[in-house]
Amino acid sequence: MTGIEIHTGDITKLKVDAIVNAANERLAPGGGVCGAIHRAAGPELARECSKVGPCPTGDARITKGYDLPAKWVIHAVGPVWHGGDSGEDAALEGAYRASMRLAAEKGLASIAFPAISTGIFGFPLERATAIAVRTVKDEVAKPGAPGHVVFCCFGKDVEAAYARALGR
């Protein structure tokens, strides 16, 4: 399958080449999607993260997927929302762009993203999904980029925001 799709469900169950973790700068297990990914992947993930981290906001690192169906986990560090005048948009775009580039470097065909920074980091959902869709569309058009992108949503509100951002 190629193209961009929206899926509502558990990102840790997706059979794609890579799933993206909404990570913190230390790449340490946390709450939300980060905690779920670490729990599903097993303790080896945290050990590898401690070797490849830290990772600055707006960038990403890649590790093995361990016990996940996905072979790879891309740890993207999105920004904490501080009102929108502290470079949050550019940092969020950077996290998506870095993730897509790492996937392209590994020759991956498919990747799944959560709604980076929209949970505990507080980034407004509509603004975040617009940035995600715009950035991914730009990156997917580049040679070697994954041809199948999934925006994995945890809830109908996130699904609806992605649908609006995609014009569906």
Question: Please, could you describe this protein's structure?
Answer:
- There is one protein chain.
- This protein has 168 residues and is of the alpha/beta class.
- Helices cover 38% and strands 20% of the residues.
- It contains 5 helices and 6 strands.
- It has helices at 32-41, 43-52, 88-105, 125-140, 156-165, and strands at 3-8, 18-23, 60-64, 72-77, 110-113, 148-153.
- It has a 6-stranded mixed sheet with strand order 1-6-5-2-4-3, sandwiched between helices.
- Helix 4 (125-140) links the parallel strand 5 (110-113) and strand 6.
- Helix 3 runs parallel beside helix 4 (125-140) and helix 4 (125-140) packs across helix 5.
What's the short story on this structure?
By secondary structure, the chain is α/β, with parallel strands linked by helices.
Output the keywords:
168 residues; six-stranded mixed beta sheet; 5 helices; 6 strands; 20% strand; globular
Provide the gyration radius in Å. 14 Å
| Large-scale geometry | globular
List the uncertain runs: none
Provide the β-strand percentage band: 15-25%
List the helices and strands and how they pair.
Layout: E1 3-8, E2 18-23, H1 32-41, H2 43-52, E3 60-64, E4 72-77, H3 88-105, E5 110-113, H4 125-140, E6 148-153, H5 156-165
Parallel strand pairs: 1-6, 2-4, 2-5, 5-6
Antiparallel strand pairs: 3-4
